[in-house]
Amino acid sequence: MIIRPSISISRSLTLQIPAARRTFLDQLSHTQKFYANVRTPEELHTLTLLSAAEDKPLITLWTAKWCSTCQAVAPLVRGLIEERVGINHGGLGYVEVEMDAATIGDLPITFRITSMPTLLAFSRQEAQLETKITRPEQLKDKEFLRNWLISEAKRGGRAGGAGGKSFGGLFG
Q1: Which among 26, 28, 46, 130 would be 20 to 30 A from 53, CA to CA?
Q2: Could you read off the pLDDT of 54-106 as tens digits, one per residue?
Q3: Is the CB of residue 80 less than 8 Å from the CB of residue 149?
Q4: What is the pLDDT of residues 13-55, one digit of tens each?
Q5: CATH code of the region 33-155
Q6: Which residues form the Thioredoxin domain (predicted)?
Q7: 123 - beta bridge partners?
Q8: d(CA 39, CA 50)
Protein backbone atom coordinates (compact mmCIF):
# COMPACT_ATOMS: atom_id res chain seq x y z
CA MET A 1 0.00 0.00 0.00
CA ILE A 2 1.35 3.44 -0.97
CA ILE A 3 0.65 6.25 1.46
CA ARG A 4 0.27 9.57 -0.30
CA PRO A 5 0.74 12.83 1.56
CA SER A 6 -2.09 15.29 1.39
CA ILE A 7 -2.26 19.03 1.68
CA SER A 8 -5.24 20.48 3.47
CA ILE A 9 -6.49 23.49 1.55
CA SER A 10 -9.66 24.03 3.53
CA ARG A 11 -11.78 22.03 5.93
CA SER A 12 -13.74 20.40 3.17
CA LEU A 13 -11.15 20.10 0.38
CA THR A 14 -7.98 17.98 0.49
CA LEU A 15 -5.58 17.81 -2.43
CA GLN A 16 -3.82 14.49 -3.02
CA ILE A 17 -0.34 14.79 -4.54
CA PRO A 18 0.80 11.62 -6.31
CA ALA A 19 4.11 10.33 -4.91
CA ALA A 20 5.83 10.42 -8.33
CA ARG A 21 4.85 14.05 -8.89
CA ARG A 22 6.01 15.09 -5.39
CA THR A 23 9.42 13.48 -5.96
CA PHE A 24 9.81 15.29 -9.29
CA LEU A 25 8.88 18.64 -7.72
CA ASP A 26 11.33 18.07 -4.84
CA GLN A 27 14.11 17.35 -7.33
CA LEU A 28 13.29 20.42 -9.41
CA SER A 29 13.48 22.74 -6.43
CA HIS A 30 16.94 21.45 -5.49
CA THR A 31 18.72 21.87 -8.81
CA GLN A 32 21.37 24.29 -9.93
CA LYS A 33 20.29 26.64 -12.74
CA PHE A 34 22.61 27.97 -15.42
CA TYR A 35 21.47 30.83 -17.65
CA ALA A 36 22.69 32.39 -20.88
CA ASN A 37 24.91 35.44 -20.39
CA VAL A 38 23.16 38.69 -19.50
CA ARG A 39 23.61 41.53 -21.98
CA THR A 40 20.70 43.85 -21.09
CA PRO A 41 19.10 45.21 -17.91
CA GLU A 42 15.84 43.46 -18.85
CA GLU A 43 17.56 40.06 -18.95
CA LEU A 44 18.99 40.54 -15.46
CA HIS A 45 15.62 41.72 -14.16
CA THR A 46 13.94 38.61 -15.59
CA LEU A 47 16.49 36.29 -13.99
CA THR A 48 16.25 37.96 -10.58
CA LEU A 49 12.46 37.57 -10.79
CA LEU A 50 12.83 33.90 -11.71
CA SER A 51 15.24 33.20 -8.88
CA ALA A 52 12.99 35.00 -6.40
CA ALA A 53 10.03 32.93 -7.55
CA GLU A 54 12.08 29.75 -7.02
CA ASP A 55 13.37 31.02 -3.66
CA LYS A 56 16.90 30.45 -4.93
CA PRO A 57 19.81 32.93 -4.87
CA LEU A 58 21.13 34.10 -8.22
CA ILE A 59 24.93 34.26 -8.41
CA THR A 60 26.14 36.80 -10.95
CA LEU A 61 29.69 37.03 -12.25
CA TRP A 62 30.37 40.43 -13.79
CA THR A 63 32.90 39.96 -16.59
CA ALA A 64 34.26 41.23 -19.90
CA LYS A 65 35.68 39.27 -22.80
CA TRP A 66 39.01 41.12 -22.62
CA CYS A 67 39.49 40.52 -18.86
CA SER A 68 42.01 37.70 -18.33
CA THR A 69 41.21 37.38 -14.60
CA CYS A 70 37.52 37.01 -15.52
CA GLN A 71 38.39 34.22 -17.93
CA ALA A 72 40.25 32.39 -15.13
CA VAL A 73 37.53 32.90 -12.49
CA ALA A 74 34.45 32.02 -14.60
CA PRO A 75 35.22 28.29 -15.04
CA LEU A 76 36.17 27.99 -11.36
CA VAL A 77 32.84 29.42 -10.13
CA ARG A 78 30.81 27.51 -12.71
CA GLY A 79 32.69 24.29 -11.86
CA LEU A 80 31.87 24.62 -8.16
CA ILE A 81 28.20 25.13 -8.94
CA GLU A 82 28.27 22.18 -11.35
CA GLU A 83 29.75 20.12 -8.48
CA ARG A 84 26.47 20.89 -6.72
CA VAL A 85 27.93 23.20 -4.08
CA GLY A 86 24.96 24.61 -2.19
CA ILE A 87 22.52 21.97 -3.41
CA ASN A 88 21.78 20.84 0.16
CA HIS A 89 20.53 24.34 0.92
CA GLY A 90 18.15 24.71 -2.03
CA GLY A 91 20.58 25.26 -4.88
CA LEU A 92 21.81 28.26 -6.81
CA GLY A 93 21.23 30.03 -10.08
CA TYR A 94 24.27 31.26 -12.03
CA VAL A 95 24.77 33.78 -14.81
CA GLU A 96 27.59 35.86 -16.22
CA VAL A 97 26.89 39.54 -16.84
CA GLU A 98 28.79 40.85 -19.87
CA MET A 99 29.84 44.34 -18.85
CA ASP A 100 31.38 45.02 -22.26
CA ALA A 101 28.06 44.44 -24.06
CA ALA A 102 26.91 47.62 -25.80
CA THR A 103 23.38 47.07 -24.45
CA ILE A 104 24.28 46.67 -20.75
CA GLY A 105 23.36 50.27 -19.93
CA ASP A 106 23.99 51.53 -16.41
CA LEU A 107 23.71 48.14 -14.67
CA PRO A 108 27.27 48.28 -13.31
CA ILE A 109 26.56 51.68 -11.75
CA THR A 110 23.22 50.52 -10.35
CA PHE A 111 24.85 47.58 -8.54
CA ARG A 112 28.11 49.36 -7.62
CA ILE A 113 30.32 47.18 -9.78
CA THR A 114 33.67 48.97 -9.78
CA SER A 115 36.02 46.17 -10.81
CA MET A 116 36.10 42.97 -12.81
CA PRO A 117 35.51 40.27 -12.10
CA THR A 118 32.93 40.74 -9.36
CA LEU A 119 30.73 38.08 -7.80
CA LEU A 120 27.39 39.42 -6.62
CA ALA A 121 24.50 37.38 -5.26
CA PHE A 122 20.84 38.36 -5.54
CA SER A 123 18.34 37.14 -2.98
CA ARG A 124 14.66 37.95 -3.52
CA GLN A 125 15.75 40.38 -6.24
CA GLU A 126 17.90 42.23 -3.73
CA ALA A 127 21.59 42.65 -4.53
CA GLN A 128 23.64 41.40 -1.59
CA LEU A 129 26.14 44.26 -1.77
CA GLU A 130 27.69 43.53 1.63
CA THR A 131 28.81 40.06 0.54
CA LYS A 132 30.01 40.79 -3.01
CA ILE A 133 33.52 39.63 -3.85
CA THR A 134 35.96 41.75 -5.84
CA ARG A 135 39.41 40.81 -4.58
CA PRO A 136 41.26 38.64 -7.16
CA GLU A 137 42.97 36.49 -4.50
CA GLN A 138 39.54 35.54 -3.08
CA LEU A 139 38.05 34.99 -6.53
CA LYS A 140 40.82 32.52 -7.37
CA ASP A 141 40.66 30.67 -4.02
CA LYS A 142 38.52 27.58 -4.59
CA GLU A 143 37.89 26.90 -0.89
CA PHE A 144 36.94 30.52 -0.22
CA LEU A 145 34.52 30.44 -3.17
CA ARG A 146 33.02 27.14 -2.00
CA ASN A 147 32.31 28.61 1.45
CA TRP A 148 30.89 31.81 -0.07
CA LEU A 149 28.57 29.86 -2.39
CA ILE A 150 27.35 27.70 0.50
CA SER A 151 26.72 30.81 2.57
CA GLU A 152 24.70 32.39 -0.24
CA ALA A 153 22.78 29.15 -0.82
CA LYS A 154 21.91 29.00 2.89
CA ARG A 155 20.45 32.49 2.58
CA GLY A 156 18.06 31.04 0.02
CA GLY A 157 15.45 33.53 -1.02
CA ARG A 158 15.62 35.27 2.31
CA ALA A 159 16.76 38.85 2.55
CA GLY A 160 19.97 39.89 4.22
CA GLY A 161 23.24 41.48 3.39
CA ALA A 162 22.39 44.70 1.61
CA GLY A 163 19.19 45.91 3.17
CA GLY A 164 17.40 42.92 4.62
CA LYS A 165 18.59 43.70 8.14
CA SER A 166 16.96 47.13 8.28
CA PHE A 167 13.95 45.97 10.25
CA GLY A 168 15.88 43.61 12.52
CA GLY A 169 13.67 40.77 13.69
CA LEU A 170 10.36 42.58 13.14
CA PHE A 171 9.47 40.85 9.88
CA GLY A 172 11.33 37.55 9.96
Answers
A1: 130
A2: 999 999 999 999 999 999 999 999 999 999 988 888 899 999 999 999 999 99
A3: yes
A4: 333 444 444 344 344 445 899 999 999 999 999 999 999 999 9
A5: 3.40.30.10
A6: 54-139
A7: 126
A8: 17
